[in-house]
Amino acid sequence: MTALNRRWLGLGLGATLAAFTILPAHADEKAATDRIKLGVIGGDEEEIAEVAKKVAAKAGLEIEVVTFSDYTLPNEALSRGDLDANAFQHKPYLDAQIAARGYRIVPAGFTIVEPIGFYSLKIKDFKDLPEGAQIGIPNDPSNGGRALNLLAANGLITLAPGKGLQPTVLDVTGNPKKVKLRELDAALLPKQLADLDGAVINTNYALGAKLDPRKDALVQESRTDNPYGNFIAVRAGDEGKPAVVKLVKAYQSQEVKDFLGTRFKGAILPAW
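RESULT FIELD:
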């Protein structure tokens, strides 16, 4: 406090000074609710975020989009406070991250769903996979389990009952073609595809590698009742903040829905 302020207080003007200092603090608080730092995976999810950013601006929300190339980073950045929200994951992935790292992160609103698919540069029909085929799957628990469920749903392997959305390779109980499952970083699977007989690849990485999920995926998850809808995630307690509410509304807008239909033509769908 300056000498002048101390003199004002001594003259009984403390209330006036207090009222004066409240105004800048209130203005800063309002400005903070009008801005949000959002983490996404680069590529198609970044494109979608940019559309949501334009929609949000009309509602008085400024979004700073921060891109990542590794699935493990956006939740760590959110937990540390480097981000206000992220939009890249589904619930099984977040559940696995919480179990492993203890994050206090919660969903705030659905965004998109990207049905995962199986791709190959060597065969044209999933049934033609040879005995002993090398199959790549993501090495993170949720997407790895997702890949195994896709392979099981199409008869390539059998999984132990009751494993739900997150089976592991240890839960494979039947493997008539004796395929070899190779767990690799999800982002690297498109680059490894030429060295494999096939791989289960997340849609965002498939699109980034110029694969068309509608035409190139030999088998794919169901598009209806899909449990892997992506959402905006925030730190627990932040889901009701005005900026977060505006962010969710921007993603769940007609403009974003129209963009998905025009840009991705069914490869990526609204999840709300």
